[in-house]
């Protein structure tokens, strides 16, 4: 039976609003004039690449990027984010119905994210959906993170699956490269900030809406 592993940010849920708010709180705490815009596509896309990416974007708009400042701001950002994980975050339409269909059909499901595992666990509990997934592997679960294939394989093994008979559903180049490194198909969603721009990454399939997940997966599975 095929295993389905999901990325979290930008794949299961739009977390950009809360991530950008945390970055702006960090800039405030550091006394820096940088601000990120929650409705700007560039800023939304950067948010889904992680905290350090947001800090670099903000600092870079006000001069040279200072990696020491990024290092100093990162724990401040994480603390701000931990205090407001799910104020603006929403699950994408149809996602939990799709996950339930997979479970009923016997497909193990899990999460592999580059979000710190404690924050990811808290967010999924806040959203009331943690129990739907058999495992959650975060950025700090192993010594390496995506695009290294080890976290993906670990997530598959934790839900009792075969790493050679799995698929990764994500939204970025990181997910595409993780799947490639693991030797499995990738499905990239088109409803994130990158839109259909993810097509340029040449995934095995694109997903426009979770209502179509069953059909998309059947198109890439050979058994």
UniProtKB/TrEMBL annotation:
Its cellular-component GO annotations read:
cytosol
Kindly tell me the pathway this chain contributes to.
Organic acid metabolism; glycolate biosynthesis; glycolate from 2-phosphoglycolate: step 1/1
- Reaction catalysed by this chain? 2-phosphoglycolate + H2O = glycolate + phosphate
One term of GO molecular function: phosphoglycolate phosphatase activity
EC number per UniProt? 3.1.3.18
**Record has Transmembrane helix as a keyword:** no
**Entry's Gene Ontology BP terms:** DNA repair
Keywords annotated in UniProt: Hydrolase
Keyword Ribonucleoprotein assigned to the entry: answer is no
One Pfam family it belongs to: Hydrolase
Q: Which family does it belong to?
A: Belongs to the HAD-like hydrolase superfamily. CbbY/CbbZ/Gph/YieH family.
NCBIfam families tied to this protein: HAD-SF-IA-v1 (TIGR01549), HAD-SF-IA-v3 (TIGR01509)
Q: What protein name applies here?
A: phosphoglycolate phosphatase
